[in-house]
Specification:
The complex is a heterodimer of chains A (114) and B (113).
Chain A (H helix, E strand, L loop, with lengths): L2 E4 L4 E4 L4 E3 L1 E4 L5 E7 L5 E7 L5 E4 L2 E4 L9 E3 L8 E11 L2 E6 L3 E6 L1
Chain B lengths: L4 E3 L2 E4 L5 E6 L6 E8 L3 E9 L2 E4 L8 E7 L2 E6 L8 E8 L7 E2 L3 E5 L1
The chains are: A mainly beta (114), B mainly beta (113).
């Protein structure tokens, strides 16, 4: 079956530190990969995505590269801000006809201290 | 568009009572998903619909849970009878057939006492 494994949190960093959140996946077929972010009291929002191998998704200073050879999609940011404090979810999507297989990782809590 | 709208925002009820959660997806989206989020189990897919038809309900935990989508603009998730272990945040999400970006509602925080 399909699965997503994320680095366990919580992760606590100082402002301007470098961030990496690891994500690996297993899937039958060729999935699209996503990072979603959940701010306190809100639903998940799409942060970035990549639809094929070697694609790089980027948004708001965050980046992730679809690595088929290592089945990974690690999230990185060069300099985090306090406002980046949130829960980050890695996810994969496979679509066949009307069937949609969406699988989320367990989420990684990030806290950025001033 | 106002986005995915869920109601109520918070629900507190007593064990044994019926609970109904509501969702209005984004207009034009033909997939609708119900998720449950807890600290212990993370984000779990309960059921999803395509064009108002349930496609996969394997994540529905028990017969106490049921979901309907009578039309393209409305869905309900019902728990009857409710139990304390049902306490969680329930999210509804929708997506357009030609896209893969899920749009989530703000969730319903359910507390069963």
């Amino acid at each position: 079956g399909n699965s997503v494994t994320q680095m366990e949190g919580p992760v606590t960093l100082s402002e301007e530190a470098f961030l990496t959140i690891n994500c690996t996946y297993t899937a039958t077929g060729y999935p699209s990969l996503f990072w979603y972010v959940q701010y306190p009291g809100e639903g998940l929002q799409l942060l970035l995505k990549a639809t094929k191998a070697d694609d790089k998704g980027s948004n708001k200073g965050f980046e992730a590269t679809y690595r088929k050879e290592t089945t990974s999609f690690h999230l990185e940011k060069g300099s985090v801000q306090v406002s980046d404090s949130a829960v980050y979810f890695c996810a994969l999507s496979l679509t066949q006809s009307s069937a949609r297989q969406l699988t989320f990782g367990s989420g990684t809590q990030l806290t950025v201290l001033p | 568009d106002a986005g995915v709208i869920q109601s109520p925002r918070h629900e507190v009820t007593e064990m044994g009572q019926e609970v109904t959660l509501r969702c209005k997806p984004i207009s034009g989206h033909d997939y609708l998903f119900w998720y449950r989020q807890t600290m212990m189990r993370g984000l779990e897919l309960l059921i999803y619909f395509n064009n108002n038809v349930p496609i996969d309900d394997s994540g529905m935990p028990e017969d106490r849970f049921s979901a309907k989508m009578p039309n393209a603009s409305f869905s309900t998730l019902k728990i009857q009878p409710s139990e304390p272990r049902d306490s969680a945040v329930y999210f509804c999400a929708s997506v357009d057939r030609g896209d893969e970006k899920l749009f989530f509602g703000s969730g319903t925080q359910l507390s069963v006492l």
